[in-house]
Amino acid sequence: MAEHRTHRPRGVRDGIRQAAERIDAVTPPERDRAVDALRAFAILGVVLGHWLVTALVADGGTLHTASPLQRMPWLVPISWVFQTLAVFFLVGGHVATRGYTSARARGTTYPHWLKSRLARLFKPVAAVLALWTVAAAALLLTGAPFETVRTLVKLALSPLWFLLVFGVLTAATPLLLRLHPLWPLAVVLHVDLVRFGLGGPDRLGWVDLAAGWLVPYSLGAAWTRGELEGRRAGWLLLGGGAVATAVLVGWAGYPASMVGVPGAHVSNLNPPTLAAVTFGLAQCGGALLLRDRLRRGMRRPAAWAAVALVNLSAMTIFLWHQTALMATTATGLAAGRLPGLHTVPDGLGWVAARTAWLPVFALALAVCWAAFRSLEQGPRRSGGRPSRVVQVHRRTEPASAKEVRRA
Fold first, then answer.
1. pTM here?
2. Mean pLDDT by 10 residues, the chain (407 residues)
3. E strands within 60-185?
């Protein structure tokens, strides 16, 4: 019996290792694994950032949002680490322009290419909208305070703005193939000059919702054109973006936090400001400098298998991570006001407690993933073919016409 107990974990480890090796073996050698690694890190950064800085405080019979950055401004560097949307748009622009160029070379029409690109992006959205429509109606009918329901629905659906912007930029990819990143950057600069320097209306800032994220997206197009291959470009973006951000925060009055803080007069993210865009340039420069190291790291089968699996479920993870947070919070209310979950984020005790809740959030997200991943990946095929991870990647994001033909 003892021998059986010691042998079983080894068998599980061997099975995981063999599965990872099979995924590694069927991946085309010409695939740039650094692209997938950057996308996975960007998605996971956003998820962890939201879990760390979004608090749902129980106040009497209602829940309202709060942020530890409001009461503990020394935590602001967390937003510098985990606000990684610029890297996601960089990778998105690179993959979309490369894929469209390849599709056009094969004679694929624009409508067919766009439909295939957006199908996987938006299919999971229907499930999120349906579930929260039912949940909101049920909560209101059972007497839940309207403010609580409003808070929950707003948080659950907040990721959808990202998909809307990303979908618009994807649809505009043929127009962006040759766009220089300085053009949208100039738009953001002039909008902020009018908005903050000349007292223009705040609503003008919503122009930056498209222009701001177009900057890293068009950098991705420049990557596809081969203009960012040298390390010099990465260092210029990293150094120039970091210096510009420091000047804007230190002398121009922009907030230091790269995410919104409740009660703050200006948010760097909603809509994006010039400081958020220059910070994104620095992030993109760092990402470009990491490409070679990531390519070497992704040669390890276990690391590559993990990255491939995250990429297969990128939209599912992104869309459901806030629901996982709220499901845990709502369930925990049955036990009273729990530290780090329902309490005001006002000290180190809250930070320690919230860190301890992260594995629980991850478990709740895993449940959501198991329930809804088929909407993004499609139904599982019988036989459990291990090459499906790579097949999906190759089908949706071809690195070359040869790769598409082999798929």
1. 0.88
2. 52 78 84 95 94 88 87 93 95 96 93 88 86 92 88 88 91 94 96 93 92 97 94 96 97 94 88 96 97 94 92 91 92 86 92 96 95 75 44 42 37
3. 62-66
